[in-house]
Design brief:
Elements lengths: L10 H8 L5 E5 L5 H14 L7 E5 L2 H15 L8 E4 H12 L10 E3 L1 H14 L9 H13 L4 H6 L1 H9 L5 H14 L2 E3 H14 L1 H10 L2 E4 L7 H11 L5 E5 L14 H4 L1 H4 L4 E5 L1 E2 L4 H11 L11 E2 L7 E8 H19 L6 E5 L5 H10 L4 E3 L9 H14 L4 H7 L9 H14 L3 H6 L8 H23 L2 H11 L2 H7 L3 H22 L13 H9 L3 H4 L8 E5 H4 L4 E6 L16 H15 L2 E15 L2 E4 L4 H4 L6 E5 L73 E4 L3 E9 L6 E6 L4 E6 L5 E5 L3
Helix pairs in contact: 1-2, 2-3, 4-10, 5-6, 5-9, 6-9, 10-11, 10-12, 15-29, 16-17, 18-19, 18-22, 22-23, 23-25, 24-25
This protein binds a DNA duplex through helix 4, helix 10, helix 20 and helix 28.
Family: Belongs to the helicase family. UvrD subfamily.
InterPro entries: DExx_box_DNA_helicase_dom_sf (IPR013986), DNA_helicase_UvrD-like_C (IPR014017), DNA_helicase_UvrD/REP (IPR000212), P-loop_NTPase (IPR027417), UvrD-like_ATP-bd (IPR014016)
Pfam family, one: UvrD_C
Length: 780
DNA sequence: TCCTCTAAGAGAGGG
DNA sequence: TCTTAGAGGA
């Protein structure tokens, strides 16, 4: 081991690393060297005589786990690191549950249902209960069930909890508890656990079997939790149970980066940690090594608007850097163009590579205009997120075969493939089998096996028997052959591979390639020696299935270093950093999302999301927004995001954000490119435009055919000084048309007017610094 | 049972 | 705009 590993650390980092005993909370600000601290701490533990077998380190993503493993290995330089338990909550618990699942009545080779499987089960049940799935939306019901499990609420408790029942009554969905109950029983019958079960059943196991709890308490003497601000109550309780004896619990997190409450995380876990244990030591990592002062100041200022935070002061020694550039464009397409042009410009002028750029947006749907414009500019890019490899239909279908081979109880998987490829077993037949299975309390598969007894005949019976025989033959084959050989046989016997091969359409070709890739991955799996040790010593099909279910595209990381511009949601960007970041679509109702502005909690989470976006940037940050954009096929007008107002003026360059200007060229090239920045055909701007060199240029292009509700500004439109506005005045707005000022608020240099636009969508709040108003008549 | 056409609906997403 | 579910015809 490197002897001087502590020398690379600053004082608080060193303190965090060398505090070994007792509860420890590390508040790690953005870019403060969190991973370094975590990995060094593990190395330090081992250097101080702690056995690797006694260390448990839990993360949220496989990627984080992998990175941690690699870095620990680098420091330790030996094979000892292999003995550590480093993994995601889900993968570690899945592993532990494999050996103890029979205690809970599950087979040890239980199937893991991903959320698609789970939703499909919910949907089946909703239909069985003859409920309207427009009202009991499977997605919504599943989220409710998921939330219950994440809060350790059993089906019985759910149905008897007054508050929960009240809530369901109020939304007139009183039967969710019933669905939850049936769902839990169905999964159990299918020998399946969903993602939430991996936590929930782990808790049930530890709570119900003291000897199991004692075993793991003894084993995991040192526990470390990454991203603690994202833990949910189930994770919290499990950690508490496991650590109760030794209390060597180290949690790391940043409350300012808690952005996952929508999937059950409670920021309270980190805010309350100090109260959970006696003598909690708190170490704050406050020096940021990532960003310029300008970027950090903007981030700090915005996040300070949130209440109830853990006090911290994130600072940096880095130079001040450039101001953050705020860019306003007319349309979403212009936004894409400006970003693409700015990337070209920055590459040329400041010698950046493609991989130095990242475009961050709130919703995946926003990616389109950037894709198009990047493609047009011949800038290579890659979009992260969206459908993962294992979620593609052809892959899920193929995997369903493997799942059925492994676990005949897996009804979801059987239904997926029973008629794929088409073999004449249709909807009616499947429904019948379902009904028989429920009536006779048999599994779906058992009914299929005894199809003749249940009165199926003719072609249907033949088809079912053929299917059953085929699956059984795979099962027999698995006894003598490895997972890869069986998978190849599946591809042959079912004709799937041949069929896709003969499909010469683009999609067909892609599907064929995907199946080949899947087969390759299975081959690779069977041929590479395991590194997980212990329980994962064998390379069975079951283990392969578990691995891929708990794996996502993001973990693949194969293109990690490829030289392309990266596009992703802000959520997906957490933990990453880029020299140049574009945070786009900064408009009200988009960011903050219109779905999250109804409570302070929701809005604060959006603000934290904005904070995460800003703190991804190392040297340059561009913030963009558009006057109008197509959403759901309709042209939508949005006000600039409220977050833009919360930023400190002195670090912002607003010269590209003037009233109604049409930015379509590169931004921030150092001034030389002003000439081509604007569409020269445009009419001169009114006196209300800002006094930058840009002000002599344009205002929005009047649309040729104004869509209904779209206002074409009067020919003499000139914005009036916000300071002269008063309530009661009749005014004109460039887009919303004529209206009346109802009230005014805010400081004189940053006034917000509430205006009623009869033809422009009713009452609107207008920030007068951005959207200009012309006084039509002085009201009374 | 299979196939095609229409209509409704749409957030972020790890494991 | 794009995707997916369900209706209705072959």
């Amino acid at each position: 081991m490197k002897a001087n590993y502590l020398d690379d650390l600053n004082a608080p980092q060193r303190e965090a690393v060398t505090t070994i005993k007792g509860p420890l909370m590390i508040i790690a600000g953005a870019g403060s060297g969190k991973t370094k601290v975590l990995t060094t701490r593990i190395a330090h533990l081992m250097n101080n005589g702690v056995d690797a077998f006694n260390i448990l380190s839990l993360t949220f993503t496989n990627k984080a786990a992998k990175e941690m493993k690699e870095r620990v290995e680098k420091i330790l330089g030996g094979s000892e690191a292999r003995n550590l338990y480093i993994g995601t909550f889900h993968s570690v618990f899945a592993r532990l549950l494999r050996s103890d699942a029979p205690k809970l009545g599950y087979p040890s080779d239980f199937t893991i249902y991903d959320s698609d499987d789970a939703k499909s089960v919910v949907k089946t049940i909703v239909n069985e209960l003859n409920l309207d799935d427009k009202h009991y939306k499977p997605n919504m019901v599943y989220n409710r069930i998921s939330a219950a499990k994440n809060s350790l609420v059993s089906p019985e408790e759910y149905q008897h909890d007054y508050a929960i029942q009240q809530e369901d009554q109020r939304s007139s969905r009183p039967l969710i508890g019933k669905i939850y109950d049936m769902y839990a029983k169905r999964c159990f019958k299918n020998g399946a656990m969903d993602f939430d079960d991996l936590l929930y059943k782990m808790y049930v196991l530890l709570k119900g079997f003291p000897e199991v709890l004692a075993k793991y308490q003894h084993k995991f003497k040192y526990i470390m939790i990454d991203e603690y601000q994202d833990t949910n109550p189930a994770q919290y309780e499990i950690v508490k149970l496991l650590g109760a004896v030794h209390e060597n619990i180290c949690v790391v997190g940043d409350d300012a980066q808690s952005i996952y409450s929508f999937r059950g995380a409670t920021i309270q876990n980190i805010l309350q940690f100090e109260k959970d244990y006696d003598d909690v030591k708190v170490v704050k990592l406050e020096q940021n090594y990532r960003s310029t002062k300008s970027i950090l100041n903007v981030a700090n200022e915005v996040i300070s608007k949130n209440k109830g935070q853990i006090e911290k002061n994130l600072w940096t020694d880095n130079h001040e850097g450039e101001k953050i550039k705020l860019i306003r464009t007319n349309t979403d397409n212009d936004e894409g163009k400006v970003v693409a042009d700015t990337i070209s410009e920055q590459k040329l002028r400041n010698h950046y590579d493609n991989k130095d750029f990242c475009i961050l947006y709130r919703t995946n749907a926003q990616s389109r205009s950037f894709e198009e414009n990047l493609r047009r500019s011949a800038i290579p890019y890659r979009i992260y997120g969206g459908l993962s490899f294992y979620q593609r239909k052809e892959i899920k279908d193929f995997i369903a075969y493997l799942r059925v081979i492994m676990n005949s109880r897996d009804e979801e998987a059987i239904k997926r493939i029973i008629n794929y490829p088409v073999r004449g077993i249709g909807k009616t037949t499947i429904e019948k089998v379902s009904i028989y299975a429920n009536d006779q309390n048999m599994t779906f598969w058992e009914v299929l096996e005894r199809a003749k007894e249940f009165g199926f005949k003719g072609g249907t019976l033949e088809a079912i028997d053929g299917f059953v025989t085929m699956i059984q033959s795979f099962r027999v084959m698995l006894e003598k052959h490895n997972a890869y050989e069986v998978a190849v046989q599946v591809g042959k016997s079912t004709n799937i591979v041949k069929e896709l091969f003969n499909d010469k359409t683009t999609e067909g070709l892609a599907r064929y390639e995907n199946i080949q890739e899947l087969l390759n991955s299975i081959k690779e799996f069977t041929e590479t020696p395991t590194e997980d040790g212990e329980l994962l010593d064998d390379k069975t099909l079951g283990i392969y299935l578990q691995q891929i279910t708990l794996l996502t595209d993001a973990d693949n990381g194969k293109d990690e270093d490829s030289n392309v511009v990266k596009l992703m949601t802000i959520h997906a960007a957490k933990g990453l950093e880029f020299p140049i970041v574009f945070t786009v679509g900064l408009e009200e109702s988009l960011f903050p999302s219109g779905m999250s502005i109804n409570s302070r909690e929701e809005l604060e989470e959006e603000r934290r999301l904005f904070y995460v976006a800003v703190t991804r940037a190392k040297t340059r940050l561009f913030l963009t927004y558009a006057n109008s954009r197509y959403r759901f096929g309709q042209l939508q007008q949005n006000e600039p995001s409220r977050f833009l107002e919360e930023m400190p003026e002195e670090f912002i360059d607003r010269s590209y954000a003037g009233g109604g200007m049409r930015n379509t060229g590169p931004i921030g090239g150092g001034g030389a490119s002003w000439g081509n920045m604007f569409d020269k055909k445009k009419a001169p701007a009114g006196p209300g435009a800002p006094a930058s060199s840009a002000s002599s240029s344009a205002r929005p292009t009047p649309r040729p055919a104004a869509p209904a509700g779209y206002h074409v500004p009067s020919a003499n439109f000139t914005a009036d000084d916000p300071a002269t506005m008063e309530a009661g005045m009749d005014v004109e707005h460039q887009k919303f048309g004529f209206g009346k000022i109802l009230s005014l608020e805010g400081a004189i240099n940053n006034r917000i007017a509430t205006v009623m636009f009869p033809k422009g969508g009713g009452e609107k709040k207008i920030m007068l610094n951005y959207a200009k108003l012309m006084i039509v008549r002085n009201g009374g």
